[in-house]
Amino acid sequence: MLIVATPLLLSACLEPMADRPSLARREVELRDRQAEAKAPPPAITAIADPSLARDLTAMLARADKAEADFALARSAAQAATGAARGKEVGSEAWSVAQTRISALGAPRRDLAQLLGDLEELYVARLAKEAAGELEPGGSDQIEQARQHVLALLDGQDQVMNAMKASLSS
């Protein structure tokens, strides 16, 4: 049986590489999310629709609050993580650091919820623009705000992952 299966197994190894997906990093993975997060959010005053401008202003204010809350919690988590470096898993310092890192999840969830709200607003706006109910243009500002919030989330994920990694080493 092994003699019969060996040529079959070897032939699978000889498949042309062109038929396989590339493992190279995709363009979206090469984008600098930190730079995008630091970029200013879209200019709300440029939006012709006052209702959309109001909604986006409120949503970006929520993003600012979530980012400020995260920064405050990050300071406490960094201090606790620093104190826990080199300590045993399960020690008091390690437990406190884990708790502080977990506290970063609340402002991150607020930001993730906001991203969902922006995506719903974006889809609804695109549908209304396509149906001719609204003039085109507002969806661009929503997408800019969405990208800004997505970059903030990515930055927060990097911070949390770095802290978790420092505790496990």
Commentary on this structure:
With 169 residues, the chain is an all-alpha fold. The chain has seven helices and no strands. It has helices at 2-13, 27-30, 33-38, 50-84, 92-103, 105-130, 138-168. The longest helix has 35 residues, at 50-84. The chain is elongated. The two termini are 47 Å apart.
- Shape field: elongated
Q: How helical, in percent, are the residues? A: over 70%
SSE pattern, N- to C-terminal: HHHHHHH
Sheet/helix structural class: mainly alpha
Total helical segments: 7
Note the beta-strand portion.
Answer: under 5%
Distance between the termini: 47 Å
Q: Largest beta sheet, briefly?
A: none
SS elements, strand count: 0
Rg from alpha-carbon coordinates: 23 Å
Features:
75% helix; 169 residues; elongated; 0% strand; single chain; mainly alpha; 7 helices
Provide a short characterization of the protein structure.
The protein has 169 residues and is an all-alpha fold. It is 75% helix and 0% strand.
Helix/strand layout:
Layout: H1 2-13, H2 27-30, H3 33-38, H4 50-84, H5 92-103, H6 105-130, H7 138-168
Helix pairs in contact: 4-5, 4-6, 4-7, 5-7, 6-7
